[in-house]
What we know:
Blueprint: H1 6-40, H2 43-77, H3 86-116, H4 125-154
Amino acid sequence: MLAISETYYNTLKFLHVLAAITWVGGGIYAQALATKVMREGDPAHLARTAKDLGDLGNRVNLPASVSVLVFGVWLVAVSAWNFTDAWILIGLGGIAATIVTGAFFLGPEAERLGKIAPTRDPADPEIQRRIKRIFAIARIDLVVLIVVVADMVFKPGS
């Protein structure tokens, strides 16, 4: 552990928590909005919402997720915690899973959808199926994030 001031540590912790709030809050908002729009039954509105949420995900959730990881690793590096502590391994595993899901499925699938959607009717069954699949995977991803938040709060094994 490095000798650091309490202010330095608390600043890192604040930035880590703020990024986590942004990431998880954005995911909760996206799921709430997607659920509302799906219930309306308007395929064009759902397609626009999916596009907008994808754009916001790239601009807000992606930087927030990277910030959570960076500040979390930094906190462990300068604190008495260890990278072998169970709760830190669980947190890192959860964050890695959600980053991989976003980078290798959610982001690319949203991009593919964005390319084909303008050439088709928003009510096209393929468009609607892809949108609903993205939201379903994102919902599972959000549950993983919430488990990570619980892990960070309760610190099992510490």
